Amino acid sequence: MEKLWKILTPDQGMVNRICRRLNCSPVMATILANRNIMSSEDLSAFFDSSFQQIGSPFCVQDIEVAAARICEAVKTRERIWIFGDYDVDGITATTMVYQFLKDAGAEVSYYIPHRVREGYGMRLHHISDIAIPNQIQLIITVDCGISSHEAIQAANASGMDVVVTDHHRITNSLPDALAVINPDRMDCDSGLEHLAGVGVAFYLLVAVRKQLRDQNHWSHYPEPNLKEMCDLVALGTIADLVPLVAENRILVKKGLEVMNAGKRIGIKALIDTCNLGKDRIETGDVAFRLAPRLNAAGRMRHADLAVQLLMAQDVGSAVNAARELGELNRSRQIIEKEIIEDIDRYIADYPKLLEKKTMVLSHPDWHVGLLGVVASRLADRYYRPVVLFSEKRLPWKGSARSIPGFDLHQALDSCSNLLEAFGGHKMAAGLSVKPDQFRAFKDEFESTAEKMIHPETAKPTILIDQELNLNQVTDRIIEELDSLQPFGKENQEPLFMARNVQIHFSSQVGDNHRRLRLGHSSGKLLNGIHFNAGPETMNAAKFDKMAFRLRWNHWNGKKTAQVIVEDVDLQQ
453 with 394, same domain? Predict the structure, then answer.
C-alpha cells in the first residue's frame, strides 16, 4: 500500500534553544522538539527519570480503601485470591501481586482462566466453582474485572470482598466492588490513564507497602523492594503497547535496568533461550522476542506456564519452562502463518473485499488464541480495522485490531446491540457474537467505519523526524539517540530519511532480510539491515528515498553504528 512520507518541521528557534540548554546536536534537539519536549521542566523530567518523579499512589480513586482492606487480610491471614488475565500484562501483574503478598506473609493463591475454554474475565462459575469451595474472603483482580458485574455481585452475596484493578475502557457503570482502581474512571483525576494493568497493580502495592509500614508490619517480614519488581512492570507495560511517557517511562527504564542485571532467574532463562547475542536488553527485544514467548503460553496451552517461569526459584526449572515456551512460540508461528495464508487466498479469490473500510472474517478452524496477533498483522498490512472470529465454540469468539485515528472501542460500542460481549481500548479489543448476528455486525461495523475513517487517516503515514544525509551520521548522534530510550508508543524511536542511497554490498539473510553496506555516491559507508524486504527491493542497487533508524549494534562487548532500514522508495 502506498504510504505518505511526511517530514516533521519543528520551530527552528525552539530547536536552537534546546541545543543551547543541553549542549546537544541539532539532530537531537529536532527530535525533542518533534515530541514537544521543550521546556526546562519537561527536558529535566525526561532525562532525569527517577522514582522521585512518581507521585503518591493515594491520588488514585479507591486505592486507599483497597490498600486498607488488603492490609487487614494480610494481618489476619484471610484467604486472598488473585484473579488475572492470560496476556503478558495480566501474567506479570499476577506474578507481582502474588509474590508481594506471599512475602508479606499473606494466605494467597492465584488463578488465570484458560483463554480458549473460559475466555477473558471473571465469570459466575469462577465464584461458584472455585472461590466459594476454597473459602476465599478477598478477591483482587489484575488487568481485568471492570466488566465482571455478575461475578462480583455473586462474590458480594457470598460474603467476599472484591478489589478490582484494571486499566481497560469502562463501557457502562462501575462494578459493585469494595474498590475499583482504574485510572479511566470519570471521577479519577490521577492523570494515570496511560498505565498498563501491571502499572495499576504496582501503584496499589506501593500503597499497601506504605500502610503496612505504618502498622509496623515490616518488623516481622522483610520489606519488599518494589524497584526489583519493575522488571515485571516493564515486561507487561511494553507488551501491552501503552504510551511510554511519564510514569510508564520511569517504570520501564528502571525495569530494564533490573532485567539487564539478571536478578530474576526466569527472565534471565528466557533471554538466554532467545539467543539475542547482545549485552543489553531493550524495549524492542521485550516486544518482539520475550513477550511473544510469554504470550504463547496462554495462546497455545495455559498462561500458568509463563507465571511459573517468572516465579522460578532455581535455574533448572526456569530453563525448562523457557525452552517449553520457545517450543510453544514456534508452534504459534506455524499456525499463525497458516491462518494468514488462508486469509491471503480468500482475498485473492474475493479482491473486492479490499474496497471496504474494514475487514471482518470468520472461520471454523481458526485457533481463537491466535486471532489477535493475526488481526494485528493484517491491520498493518492492509491498513484498516480488522476483526477475526473463530467459529469453533458458541458464541463465536473474536479479536479486533485498529489503525491510528480509529477508536476501536467506540466503534464496537456503537455495534454493541449485535454483540454478546466486548471489551478493550482504542487499538485492541476482544469480542463475541452469535452466528445469526455476524452478518449484521459486519455490516454495521463497516457502516460505522465509513463515518469514522476520514480521507487523511485512510492512508498510512511515515512520520520522518528529519532528513539526514548518511555522511552526517556520527557516533555522537547515535549516542544521543540512545539516551532517548526506552522507545515505544508516544516516544517512538527516531526515524530519518536519506535520498539517493547507493547499495555497495548486499547479502540475503533468511527468507526476506537483507544485510547491506550503504552510503551515497561519495563519503562514508555504513552497515545496514533491511528486515522483511519485499521482493521488489531485495535486489535493488539504489534507494531513491530511505526511511531509517540509527542504532548501536552491540556484539561481543563492542558496538558499531548500524542503519535499520524501515521503508524505501525506488522511484522519485
Answer: yes
